[in-house]
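Q: What structure does this chain adopt?
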Amino acid sequence: MAANTLDIGSKNNYPAGELNNFTVCSFEIDMVECASMEGFLQALKFDKTHIQVEVCKLTGINAKKRGSDRNSQWKLKRGLWWQGEFYERKGDDYQRLLDRAYISMAKSSEKFRQALLDTGDLILTHHMGKSSEWDTVLTQSEFCNRLMKLRNLLRKGTDINSVKKL
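A:
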């Protein structure tokens, strides 16, 4: 890795390890409690709302495993679901949903916000992530760009409660 980068990963030291989607980091989106971003992302693979609510309660590898059986379904449909609504994987509405989730997490967690700030000026990377929208619900660039946009807003002193889009 280049000296000016920080690779986000669950086994990496702070702050990189704190910023990965597996980390326990509670937040609420659309009145659904999520225990981690991974739980939320895996929940998007299910078209039934009651299952989404349960998957949102999961963290780490448990969340990833729960969603893995649904990979063929969302890939075949070329989209994901949230609260009864279908989102085209490459659609703008899906990107806005991801923005809302990351903003919600940032609003809820001082620890997450501090870890973002503690990355300084480093370019955030995620070498374990995938780059194709058809292979993953969140690409490397979708993930890292959101983190860096949030970090920039925090550094500017923006009130995170007023942010609607990244």
